[in-house]
Amino acid sequence: MAKILLAEDEEILMMLIRDTLEDEGYEIDEANDGVEAFELLQNNDYDLVILDFMMPRMTGLEVVEKTRKSLNKIDLKMMILSAKNQQDDRDLVMKTGADYFMTKPFSPQQLIETIEDILHD
């Protein structure tokens, strides 16, 4: 099954997403902030990276930009999760180099369906 990096600074949301994805058979690595996520990206290969938009030390968008530029992981699929739902926020996320944007809150089923679509593109 696919290996996913999940970076989320809200502990309860991290746990809910992790448990949901593990129940579906995905292998999950966790990061509590953007710096930790970037360090994991430097040393591991993933099928998908799920990043919270706003995290301490480095935002999800900064992780996307840095990963695309300095790690040259052009084909890595990256999704941003955000409570922000304005079109400007969505445009910024896509312009930064993320592949997908999901607005919080979302249902576990919606998350699973989106991830399955992403991984089977």
Automatic annotation (TrEMBL):
Residues 3-119 form the Response regulatory domain. It comes from the Bacteria. Coiled coil: none annotated. Keywords: Phosphoprotein. InterPro entries: Bact_response_regulator, CheY-like_superfamily, Sig_transdc_resp-reg_receiver. PROSITE patterns: RESPONSE_REGULATORY. The modification 4-aspartylphosphate is found at D52. GO terms for biological process: phosphorelay signal transduction system. This is Response regulator. It comes from Fictibacillus aquaticus.
